[in-house]
Amino acid sequence: MNSLIQKANRLIVKVGSSLVTNDGRGLDHAAIARWAAQIAALRALGKQVVLVSSGAIAEGMLRLGFEHRPTDIHALQACAAVGQMGLAQIYETSFRAHGLGTAQVLLTHADLADRERYLNARSTLTTLLSLGIVPIINENDTVVTDEIKFGDNDTLGALVANLIEADALIILTDQRGLFSADPRKDPAAYLIERASAGDPALEAMAGGAGSSLGRGGMLTKILAAKRAAKSGAHTVIAFGREPEVLTRLASGEPIGTELQAQTGHLTARKQWMADHLHTAGQVVIDAGAIAKLSREGKSLLPIGVIEVRGEFGRGAVITCVSEGGVAIARGLSNYTSGEARRIVRKPSGEIEGILGFVEGPELIHRDNMVLL
Ligand SMILES: Nc1ncnc2c1ncn2[C@@H]1O[C@H](COP(=O)(O)OP(=O)(O)O)[C@@H](O)[C@H]1O
Ligand SMILES: N[C@@H](CCC(=O)OP(=O)(O)O)C(=O)O
Known about the structure:
Its EC number is 2.7.2.11. The protein is an alpha/beta fold. The protein is built from 16 helices and 13 strands.
């Protein structure tokens, strides 16, 4: 019984170019309608779903009349921009048929490497999910070139899984899962049903893309699973044309390849923070705040902060120290050092009046904090 997807509350579903565009013949309306129906069923089960969809370049090539994938990067970018309109339109229509709204989110890897943009993307996505919207994500191909040359949406799917701490990443592709070797080349290849994400033996099995449309092949999927596992997300690689693939996975049926994460996502996130030796600044907190953090497991509110040391941006890792200089906790700051200095010692209800906006009532949220 495969219960990974059954148990997952927050899921990323990634669909590859070949699937979305019917192997380059044009947007596969029927397949997209089926995934939308399945995602609507998952939402009805209380699961939050983010869709990462490729296919913009393949669809744009068709719309612009390119017979072969252009080698000129700017022509590829033009294809992506044209094709993305088709993707947005068909997803909006297909989900609307089930009473669900969609939102277009275009991201680059650089956006997710920047702490402030990372937090902004995270807040926008979690807000969309809480509003019942299905975010549809793709790379922002207009502003980057490296990712068109080397990038792939498998990695983007994993980065988004890290970003919003998804419980699982489902990668739908044109094969039934990971095989012991590329099944297009080796007829004796067999399906790997279950493995540990990050197992180095998997990388040896994976070859490059099987078609001229897909960019990554199986290797990027294996590496994506490894990356997703770092924040505690499990990965399933399955055939996107398998009937009811998503709903069957959600009901516990084992389909495709399951790559398990070895740590839970809160543990993984906290481990990351504990390992983060270079903290950007410090906040000196009072005895009341120390008790709240250490004994009651609460967030750090500005009212418990005596002093802000150093210069840091929103999302930076900062250390909470006692007046005697003992390090108590480490975590991600919701505010910049300048903003934090203006709200220390103030009740959270006054933040909006002082700063003109609120990123959250706490300076460091409990989920973004690790006790030392
Ligand atoms: N070990 C393997 N198991 C399964 N598929 C593999 C393997 N190695 C390479 N591949 C190739 O990877 C392809 C899927 O990757 P890709 O074309 O990038 O798909 P997508 O567009 O879904 O991201 C398959 O069609 C297959 O030919
Ligand atoms: N942003 C590109 C993604 C290309 C890509 O990664 O494709 P795939 O390997 O099929 O997931 C597009 O929409 O065409």
